[in-house]
Request: fold
Amino acid sequence: MTRALLGCIADDFTGATDLANNLVRAGMRVVQAMGVPTAPLDAEADAIVVALKSRTIPKDGAIAQSLAALQWLQAQGAEQIYFKYCSTFDSTAEGNIGPVTDALMQALGTDFTIATPAFPDNKRTVFKGYLFVGDVLLNESGMQNHPLTPMADPNLVRVLQAQTESRVGLIDHSVVAQGEAAIRARIAQLQAEGVRMAVVDAVSNADLLRLGPALKGMPLVTAGSGVAIGLPGNFGVAPSNEAARLPAAQGLQAIVSGSCSVATNQQVMDFIKAGQPALAIDPLRIAAGVDVAAEALAWAEGHIGQGTVLVYSTAEPSAVRAIQGQLGSDKAGAMVEETIAAIARGLVQRGVRQLIVAGGETSGACVQALGITQMRIGAQIDPGVPWCHAVAPDAADGLHITLKSGNFGSTDFFTKAFAQLQA
Ligand code: ADP
Reply:
């Protein structure tokens, strides 16, 4: 095993893949682990991303999980630690960004770090410490109504200061625009004033690439996934296609979809319109006790030898509301996730080695059912969605898998993704 250069701790699952994707594009070979592994990494990687589910849990749990991830990453030789949170700085009333950052700083024995969710590729920019989503401030973006992490204040210095005893400061755009030396000078000035965490302005990738060199040697960086584009250069790593290289694709192809987002509805329609075999599963039949997974697998066996098959619960909002009205949204969600995960596993047992999973929660359920504990990150299919490669109990020879969260991907994603894999 080579020594991992960058050790990353992500506070949710799809956010971890988003970060991994940016690191691969910047030239690093990346492995993503689901939760804190119990054994050393058995793959070569320049960066490791440990995916936690710590964003909205009570802060003590988030701290404990993050410290466990830190310890494991240090044991893998990580030279710099990257705490990754959402590009909309999603925080609960307790944090958890501030408390986790404090705990990591203490464990690392460091007294300064940065904090910036800026991700210009995804229209998240920070100016004068204020976070913009597209053309509007964070608190006008819809995030003020988020069910778990409502964001009512767009000023990140204030938001972070409310989560920590550490003093929070700002490295504003006039400094970032001047580049590494000016940023380092500002950091020294802030440290002299007793500031321990600095929000950093960035409105473009050029800003992030200017910031990167100034972060060389900083034990802890905290950020969204954007800052990642400027870090690999500090380790002498340059963008290359090599980083995204996965083993050659083999086996059968399938798609399972439990996402009801607008983009996924279009992708399912596009696949069906192209005349490809697709089977809809009905949540009410699952609720009635029918073994829908077994039925779907029997159907798939008849088609899978000839090409890609799709099994989906994807439905328009009105249909989803009707089901939720009858079953309750939690129960409907959990039942459908469990069924789709069983189908995904059955498909892999039947020889599928190229699998698309659509839906964030659905992906979590499928990865768990497949017993996947780590994935190597490959080339991006669409922004934020890379192909990955994993070994699983039912696929000891390895499996290509991509986890597409709801609104990601172009309309022809389901055909494009497989075409890219064969190229
Ligand atoms: P997305 O990434 O699009 O938000 P998720 O998988 O995260 O997709 O969430 C979709 C949720 O909706 C899951 O809990 C899934 O089980 C549930 N679901 C899927 N299909 C249906 C349906 N037809 N009716 C009700 N709920 C559904």
In short: The chain has a mean pLDDT of 95. The chain has two domains: 6-240, 246-422. Residues 227 and 313 are 36 Å apart (CA to CA).
